[in-house]
Write a structure and sequence with these properties.
It is a single chain. The protein has 17 helices and eight strands. With 415 residues, the chain is α+β, with helices and mostly antiparallel strands. The strands form two sheets. Strands 2-6-5-4-3 form a five-stranded antiparallel beta sheet, with no helix packed on it. Helix 3 packs across helix 4 and helix 7 runs antiparallel to helix 8. The longest helix is centred in the C-terminal third of the chain and has 36 residues. Keywords: DNA damage, DNA repair, Glycosidase, Hydrolase, Lyase, Multifunctional enzyme, Nucleus. InterPro entries: DNA_glycosylase, HhH-GPD_domain, HhH_base_excis_C, OGG_N, Oxidative_DNA_repair_enzyme. GO terms for molecular function: 8-oxo-7,8-dihydroguanine DNA N-glycosylase activity; class I DNA-(apurinic or apyrimidinic site) endonuclease activity; damaged DNA binding.
Length: 415
């Protein structure tokens, strides 16, 4: 089945404001890895249909082929469940902001970030792939796995841009969509070798072993973990191959309804150290004690939906969203500068404050002092930001096997 994007399509809509769901952020912040963006549309093979989304400030628009596959929920019901639209995100943001001044500052630039409620099997395999990996590469691996073993749902012709010289369309692209393969498709003896050829590396063996374990227990066992307490769920998940505490927490949070699960990786460790007073550690890897302490701290701070709140700060810490973070820092710097000027005026009076001075009577020495103080504060903040970015690049280089000196890393960040 081949379908054209230019053909007339039936769009339906749900009333969802951007403050409750921002798909341009949620679908690319490392929760799900199969969504594809084309222009202002997002598409994915989901629950036996090809689903396409658009968003306006007030509505979520959706189109599906088919809208209601036999034996599956309607697309509207699927979306309400997938995005957990029964939960008021605005109320949660207010609650977290009241408890945490740092969250309040960050969240003003990162609204509409909510947790997806994914298929547990797909979510589990995707995060086994995430070990020592980045979002772009994980997406490629998961797409490759679906292409190799998933059921084909059809293909869509994506219109190409027009050549500016002759006005003719450039080469048109056809995108094929495949459903996520069930466990039994990944149990064969030949699967590991084929996965390795697709670039899965050591994760290939983990996926095959986990597929066999889940297949033996049955998918109902995995989905049934939604009904069990968080600690029991985590204990069950870490028995699977390739699943440690962080992957277990990701699956518990993103597909098994455990809103208080807080996955802790290097990003979250840096956030805890930089913004929440956790001491530096000499260990290159997280100890179990530190991992548990960070999760418990955030659960005490944000409450039973701590995993949801954590995802906002995690997203803000990703380099792909750094523009929004810089904007927040710039606004904070402007406020700090304004306050500093008031302090300087009080400090440079004659001992009686500035009660007798008008703005026009401020001495030249006072204005110079203000400029110097402001310059020092801004320079300090910029240096701290650059240092944080260099540290993050060093980690990324290490886990991806990119040898480089500190000087080379600094040069790359300055480019």
């Amino acid at each position: 089945m081949s379908l054209s994007c230019t053909a007339k399509r039936e769009w339906r809509k749900l009333p969802v404001p951007l403050s409750e769901l921002h798909i341009n952020t949620v679908l690319r912040c490392g929760q799900s890895f199969r969504w594809r963006k084309n222009g202002n549309e997002w598409s994915c093979a989901l629950s036996a249909r090809i689903l396409t989304l658009q968003q306006t400030p007030t509505h979520l628009l959706y189109h599906a082929i088919p809208f209601s596959p036999p034996g599956h929920p309607t697309t509207e019901d699927l979306l309400r469940d997938y995005f957990q639209l029964n939960i008021s995100l605005s109320d949660l943001y207010k609650k977290w902001a009241a408890a945490d001044p740092h969250f309040q500052r960050i969240s003003s630039s990162f609204g509409g970030i909510r947790m997806l409620r994914q298929d547990p099997w797909e979510n589990l395999v995707s995060f086994i792939c995430s070990s020592n990996n980045n979002i772009s590469r994980i997406s490629g691996m998961v797409q490759g796995l679906c292409t190799e073993w998933g059921a084909p749902l059809g293909s869509v012709d994506i219109p190409s841009p027009v050549d500016p010289e002759d006005g003719m369309p450039l080469e048109e692209k056809t995108v094929a969509y495949y459903d996520f393969p069930p466990p039994e498709k990944l149990c064969g003896d030949e699967v590991e070798g084929r996965l390795r050829k697709l670039g899965f590396g050591y994760r290939a063996g983990y996926i095959v072993e986990t597929a066999r374990m889940v297949n033996d227990k049955g998918l109902d066992w995995l989905v049934g973990l939604r009904e069990r307490p968080y600690q029991e769920v985590k204990e069950e998940l870490v028995k699977l191959k390739g699943v440690g505490p962080k992957v277990a927490d990701c699956v518990a949070l993103m597909s098994l309804d455990k809103k208080g699960a807080v996955p802790v990786d290097t990003h979250v460790l840096q956030i805890a150290q930089r913004d929440y007073g956790f001491g530096k550690t000499k260990n290159k890897t997280l100890t179990t004690k530190t991992y548990d302490a960070i999760g418990e701290h955030f659960r005490n701070l944000w409450g039973e939906e701590a995993g949801w709140a954590h995802s906002v700060l995690f997203t803000a810490d990703l380099k792909s969203f750094s523009e929004q973070l810089v904007k927040t820092k710039t606004e904070t710097t402007s406020v700090s500068v304004k306050k500093e000027r008031v302090v300087v005026k009080n400090e440079t009076g004659t001992g009686t404050g500035v009660e007798k001075e008008t703005p026009g009577e401020v001495k030249e020495q006072t204005r110079t002092t203000k400029r110097v103080r402001v310059k020092v504060e801004v320079k300090k903040e910029v240096n701290e930001e650059v240092n944080d970015e260099v540290k993050e690049q060093m980690w990324d280089d290490d886990v991806n096997g990119v040898p480089s000196s500190l000087a080379e890393r600094v040069k790359r960040r300055r480019r």
